[in-house]
Amino acid sequence: MASELEPEVQGLDRTFLECSAEETAGKWLQATDLTREVYQHLAHYVPRIYCRGPNPFPQKEDMLAQHVLLGPMEWYLCGEDPEFGFPKLEQANKPSHLCGRVFKVGEPTYSCRDCAVDPTCVLCMECFLGSIHRDHRYRMTTSGGGGFCDCGDTEAWKEGPYCQKHELNTSEIEEEEDPLVRLSEDVIARTYNIFAIMFRYAVEILTWEKENELPADLKMVEKSDTYYCMLFNDEVHTYEQVIYTLQKAVNCTQKEAIGFATTVDRDGRRSVRYGDFQYCEQAKSVIVRNTSRQTKPLKVQVMHSSLVAHQNFGLKLLSWLGSIIGYSDGLRRILCQVGLQEGPDGENSSLVDRLMLSDSKLWKGARSVYHQLFMSSLLMDLKYKKLFAVRFAKNYERLQSDYVTDDHDREFSVADLSVQIFTVPSLARMLITEENLMTIIIKTFMDHLRHRDGQGRFQFERYTALQAFKFRRVQSLILDLKYVLISRPAVWSDELRHKFLEGFDAFLELLKCMQGMDPITRQVGQHIEMEPEWEAAFTLQMKLTHIISMVQDWCASDEKVLIEAYKKCLGVLMQCHGGFTDGEQPITLSICGHSVETIRYCVSQEKVSIHLPVSRLLAGLHVLLSRSEVAYKFPELLPLSELSPPMLIEHPLRCLVLCAQVHAGMWRRNGFSLVNQIYYYHNVKCRREMFDKDIMMLQTGVSMMDPNHFLMIMLSRFELYQIFSTPDYGKRFSSEITHKDVIQQNNTLIEEMLYLIIMLVGERFIPGVGQVNATEEIKREIIHQLSIKPMAHSELVKSLPEDENKETGMENVIETVAHFKKPGLTGRGMYELKPECAKEFNLYFYHFSRAEQSKAEEAQRKLRRQNREDTALPPPVLPPFCPLFASLVNILQSDVMLCIMGTILQWAVEHNGYAWSESMLQRVLHLIGMALQEEKQHLENAMEEHVVTFTFTQKISKPGEAPNNSPSILAMLETLQNAPYLEVHKDMIRWILKTFNAIKKIRESSPTSPVAETEGTIMEESSRDKDKAERKRKAEIARLRREKIMAQMSEMQRHFIDENKELFQQTLELDGSSSAVLDSGPVVSGTTFTALGPAQTQVSEHRQFVTCILCQEEQEVKVESKAMVLAAFVQRSTVLSKNRSKFIQDPEKYDPLFMHPDLSCGTHTGSCGHIMHAHCWQRYFDSVQNKEQRRQQRLRLHMSYDVENGEFLCPLCECLSNTVIPLLLPPRNIFSRLNFSDQPNLTQWIRIISQQIKALQSLRKEENASIPASSENSKNMEEVELPQGFRPDFHPQNPYSENIKEMLTTFGTATYKVGLKVHPNEEDPRVPIMCWGSCAYTIQSIERILSDEDKPLFGPLPCRLDDCLRSLTRFAAAHWTVASLLVVQRHFCKLFASLVPNDSHDDVPCILDIDMFHLLVSLVLAFPALQCQDFSGISLGTGDLHIFHLVTMAHIVQILLTSCTEENGMDQENLTGEEELATLTLYKILHQCTGSALKEIPSGWHLWRSVRAGIMPFLKCSALFFHYLNGVPAPSDIQVSGASHFEHLCNYLSLPTNLICLFQENSEIMNSLIESWCRNNEVKQYLEGERDAVSYPRESNKLIDLPEDYSSLINQASNFSCPKSGGDKSRAPTLCLVCGTLLCSQSYCCQTELEGEDVGACTAHTYSCGSGAGIFLRVRECQVLFLAGKTKGCFYSPPYLDDYGETDQGLRRGNPLHLCRDRFKKIQKLWHQHSITEEIGHAQEANQTLVGIDWQHL
Ligand SMILES: [Zn+2]
Ligand SMILES: [Zn+2]
Ligand SMILES: [Zn+2]
Ligand SMILES: [Zn+2]
Ligand SMILES: [Zn+2]
Ligand SMILES: [Zn+2]
Ligand SMILES: [Zn+2]
């Protein structure tokens, strides 16, 4: 279809070109009716440019539009060529000082915690870096898109509002100049004209609602009849649903459907069909039918193509306007003026109003275009920002209602602009006073929450999903309210007072609807049937928490407002609970001669609610009265006399009693919803405006009433009145056999009540309650948190309440109370409490949860014991109350209190076990302690002559009166001091008695009494005794714990044994894992060892005994015995790769015989080193497999390893494994024959081997020729001339036991299968190659690790590595015995041919393209297959040596050919060294052989140096290889790190230290070989610069460099767009740490097909970059991602830390993050060690949820 259109478009182009912008503009300048003229122009051209086919051609459209449509406008506006006009305007412009950069999704934004007025004030990265805030405490986040940089906005910053770039010149301190003065009259007039027409056109066409018709003035004469079937976005249907429906409806492929869906999701609409009306209508009906089943259908419209064309141009026009006004602030102002000008229809008829009001009807794309325009125009112009704010406020209700019913996310709604307006303090203040904004917001909010119960309270019961959805949207209004209130006014006008109080009234109305909502009744008998809905109410409470606090802040800033607010709040509270009208009956309570009237009300029987916001607000205001001293200054203005303390305390008290009863287990049948509510009531997110305020309200109440009365009411509400008002009630318990449950309940209730009293007296750290400031409050919180345990910064932050600016105020005080301990390689930085702060610890701190309290108690007692102190935790000394609360302390010495204390002590003395608990006593002791501290304080602070009325000590010394005649409290304490059952509390009782004496002393002012002193010594002694006892007790506990753990362990073992019954005859001991001969024996220093060749040092291997970890049997490793195996993991690897673009394309055809020097596809073998019998392992593996098959259906996915792929976990260490390596003796010894003749030299040897090879080849050729006549083989053989002693018909016996042979095959096949990713086939000729390759590659990778870490080659290797290398090498050397001899011989021949040319092998690579170490290993390990048929007396060792020398020489040639000798002219030609001269000679030969293509001859010194450096890795690898192959111990010199080991290595490897000697000794053959190597065409090409080659030494691969500052990564990622969906921002940009590629992870757009499955970008990338394993950084989450294969993955902690030594996964806290190099190195090390997969395995074993993640979609 597109091709059909082409000629038409071509034709059009010509007519367009004729249309000149200048002429058109000229015509317009003359026009009398400009509007008509322009509209005609648009009506003619727009449909001819836009929407010419099914798919848009944006580039072409834009180009034409610029030429034909926008060009004339620009000409018109400028009055000349815009190319000159606009720059002129720009020059004349005086730019505003606002940055106003609009944020892209994912762009980093910065806020200053010190200077930002509120957290919504942010800077772009550029401004931030140029601002003073970069040295402040800043916070970094990523933008969700929308919003702009506040740089230059003086209202947004307390300090430093400008960055360097936007800095004001001090000379031009602005007095708002009108930007229009900088424009000429003409330009103003023309701009005004054209803006007015174009803006109106855009608004009209975008808000046009008819689908098939155009506005009258745009109608065309000839109307083509094409339509679009337009699909719109909604947030209801999923991606999958839309894709599926589209495939059905418009017959497209899945890929096209994904394309449509992606565009719909991004732009909000997309045409899915183009054609005549019928055709489109048909698609529409299918889509609607298919999507209407469960939800409302997808929105589809059939629209006329010219309408769509105009709309597209309308959008283009808006963006054009946005860019034009960028030239000049004057143009911007004109646009603002045009936009806000009221139209002919009066109110709401301005263009801006019209757009806003149709916001919810527009599609996403259109919305964001005009929002952007608003932001760059109205919000950037200070004058019009204000006018716009007013329009916005006037339409507020409408806009919000539209938003609530609309289903798009908030960021796509114009309502979201509120944050830009309301957070400007001056605008917010103006809108409150002039538009009554506060009231409007609250009323709008209330309007949307219509569900009320009979009393008019909110009701969330039975509310539907739709309502829940709506409720979520309505919550954004609370956010608006928060913005409006966020900055408190410093100065109040009367108007502001008035409007604020009006808003306050509305707010009280809102709270009134919450007071008492969601009431609950205790469930008795049956458990509740359905958990009631509770979350909605709490959500509301939580969202309002900050608002309530802010409202209080506002009140506190003005006394008049505070007084009025207090009165209003009290009034509303009285309306809610005036005069106990709930129908409760009055009753009278009396104890100790006091009596009080109250009502009969039982929390356990009647309705009770946790929501009391009105009471709590009043409590808050009351404390403010106290704090600001308004209460003393203007008592006459306050309605204090109207306060009825019993009424104030009633509901908060009920709520606290409810909590107590829940703890006592009385509400168990009410289910979890109640438990949750109680939890949140105390939680740090809510407690500030819930629990804390209830405590304050009770404090307020007690301070205003007789404490005896209060206590009686409290007893009654706790339903404990009976117990304490009836003498001897406690005794009755023991005699009557009451329900144990009831007693237990009552005990808990008494404990809770005492705790409450402790809190009422002790919680004085709120400014206004006690004489403290905010700093002391926060200090106390931190001290108590750190009393539990040392904490990380983020943990502390989480436990402290945040204010509306997300600040806890912690940084200001933390240094004074805690020490910081830096983190190590893992873990986090920690704060530890300073010891001197311990004395401020209060065991009954009210924000402790139960668990925290007991942990803190334990920790503090332990601390005291460590300091050799007694373990009493007495109450701390408290600050005094504020005067308004001062009388509260009297509760401690009130009669009822003393009665309660006395009664409980009495129970403790009588100690009848039942109606009594230790914690009850502990609390009473604490209360007594508090009273004593109080009295002491009073005495110490009392002025002379002043009578201290707090006389607790006197009161507790008095015995009870008749008739009880109970002993005094003091006397009882003295009795209890020696009670054996109160051991734990002894120290506390002693402390009380001591303090009592001290007070007595102060009172009597008498000298120390001798009694006290003796008591002191007794105390010390007994505390020593106690220490001993304590230690004994601890030891006992430790013993018990150990026993318990042992019992558990043996239980677990039994379980394991049960599961693997057949494997266990004996008990499993956990230590028998080591092989008996790990160390290769003590090294005799001074001896020189030779690792290979005829002169090899002969070592007799010790007999090696190993223990099977499964059956625990010990066994000797022998050739003919049962096989012992090591668990091993084989994986493909690109860790050493120098060419990541290369990977195995077609594994079936891939030939691995020669490894390329770029090492691009290696196979690595690792092992945990744990040894098993082969048969034990086999049985273990079978049982794992069976178990898996049994649970296949249900749980198969939940495994960290893939059984079907042969994976299992090492039974001992749970290390991921996929095969086993057999344990072998040095295999060469088995085949050693006597050396009965002189050994040939290199030249001779090469000749002999060449002859043997030739013989083999001709034999093979004949065999192939005469396959049918196989019986004649022997005859044929005779015809070939055989070298002396060569017997090709000889087939050696395999010396290994069947079992070992089997294991050789098993491991060989596994290496082949994993390394090539093919199906296992033990017959495949590539199996032996893969085994040799894995051996070579693994040795190379270990050599790299050792070099990188500067470790010695033969230093102490971790024994698992040592075991692994030894087994792997010996295995690889033995494998040929189970392979076909012919195959191995053929491999050898071909390998050999790469160095010694052979006619029948012309397909070998040139020496530049061979990794010499791989070649060496393969040649050496394949050689026995040839040698075993050679009976001429040439030993294996001789062959090894010659092979080694030959390969070494080839490598030297390779190095010289590729050494990039940047000649250093400064080098002195100092040709003294023998090596240097020799190297130079060799180089000259090379120069000749290459036909002088090799570069000019550099210095010999230089050459020799590069040979030495280049060959080192090869020599080291070879040393490791021969060491493990032949078992010759390493010379001691190579075992330590330090100086160069070149000489030692050469000796060990039987090489001359002057390596060039090798050439000289064998010059006869070498010269011809060198010539053959250099003659190669590839070499020539390389030397002529036509191709690349690897040079030596190869550098180690590193992970990419990461920036120091994390935000530059975020910035980098925010500029990254999805490579597949045309410039779209990627949602989860992810950085490959191996190669640095940025990927668009976790999204549909970048999924690709891999082996028939859809996988995400990361998984796809791992296949090419990491052979299946990958290391990524998820930039937006700040999280490291490890991936392996398609199913495995885990997250790993990122190498970025904040200043507190913590990572920030998910970037939730936003503290600045900096690179931690050590942690990054650790990740790199994991990579180098090939431990990524293992790490994933461990992570998945530890955290099962990781197994469930669809890693392949990342
Ligand atoms: Zn900026
Ligand atoms: Zn700036
Ligand atoms: Zn700052
Ligand atoms: Zn065993
Ligand atoms: Zn293991
Ligand atoms: Zn990569
Ligand atoms: Zn993408």
Automatic annotation (TrEMBL):
Where found? Chromosome; Nucleus
Q: Where is this region: Disordered?
A: 1005-1034
Q: Which GO terms describe its molecular function?
A: ubiquitin protein ligase activity; zinc ion binding
Q: Which reaction does it catalyse?
A: S-ubiquitinyl-[E2 ubiquitin-conjugating enzyme]-L-cysteine + [acceptor protein]-L-lysine = [E2 ubiquitin-conjugating enzyme]-L-cysteine + N(6)-ubiquitinyl-[acceptor protein]-L-lysine
Q: Which Pfam family, just one, is annotated for this protein?
A: WHD_UBR1
**Basic and acidic residues compositional bias: what residue ranges?**
1021-1034
Enumerate the PROSITE patterns for this protein: ZF_UBR
GO CC terms = chromosome; cytoplasm; nucleus; ubiquitin ligase complex
Reply yes or no: does the keyword Nucleus apply: yes
Enzyme Commission no? 2.3.2.27
Q: In which pathway does it act?
A: Protein modification; protein ubiquitination
Q: What is one GO biological process annotated to this record?
A: ubiquitin-dependent protein catabolic process via the N-end rule pathway
Name the family the entry cites: Belongs to the E3 ubiquitin-protein ligase UBR1-like family.
As for what it does, the entry says: Ubiquitin ligase protein which is a component of the N-end rule pathway. Recognizes and binds to proteins bearing specific N-terminal residues that are destabilizing according to the N-end rule, leading to their ubiquitination and subsequent degradation.
What is the name listed in the Swiss-Prot or TrEMBL entry for this protein? Answer: E3 ubiquitin-protein ligase
Provenance organism: Heterocephalus glaber
Q: What is the lineage of its organism?
A: Eukaryota, Metazoa, Chordata, Craniata, Vertebrata
